[in-house]
């Protein structure tokens, strides 16, 4: 398996849930709003023998040429976005699902960004996100998922194609999901926002921004031990310095 981080850059975010670009060489986090966090926005693409799997889809920004940033990041790594075969959406917060669909302003219509792929979405998360709305969710960005033919709705825990396992963990939001990809005795783990940064795996703390911070802490502790015991490769969506680590 091959892992490629698709970083969209660093951002600061406060309680407004607005992602403000952050230049790590020039900007000072202390000059941002009190309580601002510094995060990377970093989807991943995993190449297996059977699939090109995209793990979350970033903020949905476009570059100056109008090309969706996640498309450009794939192209820069030699991958045609139309060749992506699976899109995994851990949850539907706007920094994870923004690139799942794009709008054609001329036609005034929204299209899935990866039309050849099967999207995997937690059905209960979609219902919750549509009801909850802003500031964490932006329903107009993912409403298309509700009736798209190539979306598979999942719930609870399960298995995809005998080598991709998922669990509905909750914790960060009520129906957040974690994913394991297992091939050739290798295990790739994507804990998304329950396990967003390497440092968080090493410390016990309860974050106020989580739906159930204590459960997040307990899951991180459990996964960190299991990752060492079973030699996982862990992917970190929001880590500024360490995209992934092999244990």
Q: How would you describe this structure to a colleague?
A:
With 247 residues, the chain is an alpha+beta fold. The chain has one domain (2-246): Ribonuclease Z/Hydroxyacylglutathione hydrolase-like (Metallo-beta-lactamase, Chain A). Helices cover 20% and strands 28% of the residues. The protein contains 6 helices and 17 strands. The strands form 4 sheets. The protein has a 6-stranded mixed beta sheet with strand order 1-5-6-7-10-11. The radius of gyration is 17 Å and the shape is globular. The model has no long low-confidence stretch (mean pLDDT 95).
Main sheet makeup: 6 strands, mixed
The Rg value, from CA coordinates, equals 17 Å
CATH classification, class level? Alpha Beta
Provide the structure class.
alpha+beta
List keywords for this structure.
single chain, 247 residues, alpha+beta, Metallo-beta-lactamase, Chain A, six-stranded mixed β-sheet, 6 helices, 20% helix, globular
Describe the secondary structure blueprint for this structure:
Blueprint: E1 2-5, E2 10-13, E3 20-21, E4 37-40, E5 44-47, E6 52-55, H1 69-76, E7 86-88, H2 94-97, E8 101-104, E9 109-112, E10 118-122, H3 123-132, H4 139-142, E11 151-154, E12 158-160, E13 164-168, E14 177-183, E15 186-190, H5 198-202, H6 213-230, E16 233-235, E17 244-246
Parallel strand pairs: 6-7, 7-10, 10-11, 15-16
Antiparallel strand pairs: 1-5, 2-3, 2-4, 5-6, 8-9, 12-13, 13-14, 14-15, 16-17
């Amino acid at each position: 398996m091959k892992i490629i981080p698709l970083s969209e850059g660093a951002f600061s975010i406060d309680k407004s849930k607005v992602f403000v670009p952050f230049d790590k060489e020039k900007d000072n986090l202390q000059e941002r709003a009190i309580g601002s966090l510094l995060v990377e926005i970093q989807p991943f693409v995993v190449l297996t023998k059977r699939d090109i799997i995209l793990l979350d889809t970033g903020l949905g920004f476009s570059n100056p040429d109008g090309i969706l940033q996640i498309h450009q990041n794939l192209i820069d790594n030699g991958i045609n976005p139309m060749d992506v075969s699976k899109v995994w959406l851990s949850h539907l917060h706007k920094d994870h699902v923004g690139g799942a669909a794009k709008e054609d302003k001329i036609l005034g219509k929204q299209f899935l960004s990866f039309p050849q792929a099967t999207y995997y979405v937690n059905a209960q998360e979609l219902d919750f996100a549509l009801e909850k709305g802003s500031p964490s969710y932006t329903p107009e960005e993912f409403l298309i998922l509700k009736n798209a033919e190539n979306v598979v709705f999942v719930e609870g825990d399960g298995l995809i194609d005998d080598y991709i396992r998922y669990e509905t963990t909750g914790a960060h939001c009520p129906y957040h999901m974690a994913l394991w990809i297992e091939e050739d005795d290798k295990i790739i783990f994507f804990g998304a926002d329950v396990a967003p940064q390497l440092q968080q795996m090493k410390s016990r703390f309860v974050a106020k921004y989580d739906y159930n911070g204590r459960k997040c802490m307990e899951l991180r502790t459990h996964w960190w031990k299991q990752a060492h015991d079973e030699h996982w490769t862990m992917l970190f969506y929001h880590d500024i310095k360490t995209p992934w680590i092999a244990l």
